[in-house]
From TrEMBL:
Location within or outside the cell: Cell membrane
Pfam assignment, any one: MFS_1
Protein name as it appears in the record: DHA1 family purine base/nucleoside efflux pump-like MFS transporter
Lineage: Bacteria, Bacillati, Bacillota, Bacilli, Bacillales
Record bears the keyword Cell membrane: yes
Organism expressing this protein natively: Shouchella xiaoxiensis
Length: 389
């Protein structure tokens, strides 16, 4: 494996940390900037929405630029955005910083994936892409506990200071160790969207959207949930996030094993079904801490166990457009994160945080119904015509 793939994985990890970084320190930001928890939660939604929307657009718009140069300039933009976050004196300034960092992060992760697939030989392309996505997955899992630990110890700006330092190091490493990479012809965004003409593919993408939305409805507000229902603070909450993160990482491996053994369809249906039971059970087991921890870890495991199965199902359903579908699925996931954290913010503002779990379970139920409908549809020929190729 080309060692540059691991450098790209590090870059994707650093960039990915920012998305859910605020999840564990909502209360700290809200208190300092004198805004509500829902408003701070909106900063997660805005990031994810902008990320999902701008990724394919920016990658297409910059298709003719040499890849190393583009990576360095985008890392610099990401660095500036997070410096603005560090020195934010009000909500509006932090809001702008989140938009700028989301746009640059979306392009950077897209670049990392495409560069990784281009610098290795064909037999290693899938593995290279998988390694880069491991960095993204790890960052989404570890972003919240990392932000929580640093935020509690040094204030809510501390996690962004760490991002600034790590981004600066990333710029240095790319400058020193990444060779110039010529751009390759890219399928236009319009042609990519044409692949969604197949209703079966659309339903699969919607499944990812509603599943992640259901997950984030509670996960984005797990800190206030733990404070409200269990009375936890500080290190105790950090420990909960650590357990959650460990379970999520294990879940990715479990999902891969299940997919290999029983197939993607059975894995998807099984994972979503048990996920619904676990997330909706959360508010009813808070009186017994050991049981709560077990249920929480099951919920966490299943939230990432579905990913390998969904990717495999997309590949088998649309093998001729699988690369494009993986990219579009990444956007669907981030739209789900944006929608879920937004819905969670509305629930916590208008009702109470315990209801977030039930609403999340309802959204996950929608995803289950959608994927069942998808599986009952016949596979339509998804090979792009010469016009769309």
């Amino acid at each position: 494996m080309d060692k540059r793939v691991y450098l790209l994985t590090v870059v994707s990890f650093v960039v990915g940390l920012v998305e859910l970084l605020l999840g564990g320190i909502l209360h700290l930001v809200a208190d300092d900037l004198q805004v509500s928890l829902g408003q701070v939660g909106l900063l997660i939604s805005v990031f994810s929405f902008v990320f999902a929307l701008s990724g394919p657009i920016l990658l297409t718009a910059t298709a003719s630029i040499e890849r190393k140069k583009l990576t360095l300039w985008t890392l610099l933009a990401f660095l500036v955005a997070n410096i603005i976050a560090v020195f934010s004196t009000g909500y509006a300034m932090l809001f702008i910083a989140r938009i700028l960092s989301a746009m640059s992060a979306a392009l950077l992760i897209s670049l990392c994936v495409t560069i990784a697939s281009n610098i290795v030989t064909k037999p290693y392309q899938a593995r290279a892409i998988g390694i880069v996505f491991m960095g993204v997955s790890a960052s989404l899992v570890l972003g919240v506990p990392l932000g929580l630990m640093l935020g509690n110890a040094f204030g809510w700006r501390a996690p962004f200071v760490l991002i600034v330092i790590l981004t600066s190091l990333s710029i240095l490493f790319v400058l020193l160790f990444m060779e110039k990479i010529a751009p390759k012809p890219m399928i236009s965004l319009r042609k990519q969207l044409r692949t969604l003409a197949n209703i079966k593919i659309v339903l699969i993408q919607l499944t990812s959207f509603f599943f992640l939305a259901g997950h984030l409805t509670l996960y984005a507000y797990l800190t206030p949930f733990l404070q409200s229902t269990l009375g936890l603070e500080g290190n105790a909450i950090s420990l909960m996030y650590l357990l959650f993160g460990i379970a999520a990482i294990i879940g990715g491996g479990v999902g891969g094993i299940l997919t290999d053994r029983i197939g993607p369809k059975k894995t998807i249906v099984s994972v979503i079904s048990v996920f619904i039971i676990s997330i909706t059970s959360i508010p009813f087991v808070t009186s017994i801490l050991p049981i709560f921890i077990i249920v929480m870890m099951v919920w966490s495991m299943l939230s990432w166990a579905i990913t390998p199965a969904m990717q495999s199902y997309l590949i088998t359903t649309s093998p001729d457009t699988s690369d494009i579908q993986q990219s579009l699925n990444n956007s669907a996931l981030h739209f789900g994160i944006a929608f879920g954290s937004m819905i969670g913010g509305v629930v916590i503002e208008q009702a109470y945080v315990e209801l977030n779990a039930l609403v999340g379970g309802a959204l996950a139920t929608v995803s289950l119904l959608i994927i069942i409908i998808s599986m009952r549809l016949k596979i339509k020929n998804t090979k792009m015509s010469s016009k769309a190729a």
